[in-house]
Design goal:
single chain, 174 residues, mainly alpha, 3 domains, 9 helices
Length: 174
């Protein structure tokens, strides 16, 4: 099996910059072409931050087809785990977070990557996941026990109003 040449993000960035420079140079004389080139360059520059991720992280799929294949495997794995035919609810609920949990990774791979995670970034991501889960759980709680849910909501509102009143009182100096 032939070994695939692995290109680096730096090399690809350099080649894209060269291409944009050549394109700009070739279309400078025609106003319409220059306008299209400016649009292409603006589009590429606006997406620059994420264009080369697949070259920095070897496990990420580099093509759209590879991404599709990854997500198809992911959904198939999720159907197997849950026993449900559809994974729509799972993807809607956990999609932004679940894609990072590749079921093909071994425990050793995962444990090897964990030390690379920044603790502050992890804490922020964890906070976002928890907030997301709370938002998703609210309709479920309301459907199951509407009176209890509304009572808790009223209690939270009353508490928030009391806190606001105390803060205003302190701010006014009374």
């Amino acid at each position: 099996r032939a070994r695939r040449y692995h290109r680096t993000a730096r090399e690809i960035k350099r080649r894209v910059n060269q291409f944009l420079h050549r394109l700009k140079k070739q279309t400078n004389l025609d106003e319409r072409d220059a306008h299209v080139t400016a649009h292409i360059e603006k589009t590429v520059r606006n997406r620059w931050w994420g264009l080369f991720t697949c070259y920095r992280v070897p496990q990420l799929p580099a093509s759209n087809n590879a991404h599709e294949l990854f997500f198809n495997h992911f959904k198939q794995w999720q159907r197997r785990v849950t026993g449900r035919k559809s994974v729509e609810q799972f993807v809607l609920r956990y999609g932004p977070y679940a894609a990072y949990l590749d079921p093909r990774d071994s425990l050793a791979d995962l444990l090897g990557r964990l030390p690379q995670v920044d603790a502050v970034a992890f804490a922020e991501a964890h906070r976002k996941v928890r907030a997301h889960q709370v938002r998703l759980h609210q309709p479920y709680r309301f459907r199951r026990q509407p009176k209890r849910y509304l009572k808790e909501l009223e209690t939270r509102w009353a508490s928030a109003i009391q806190v606001t009143k105390r803060q205003r009182k302190r701010a006014s100096g009374s």
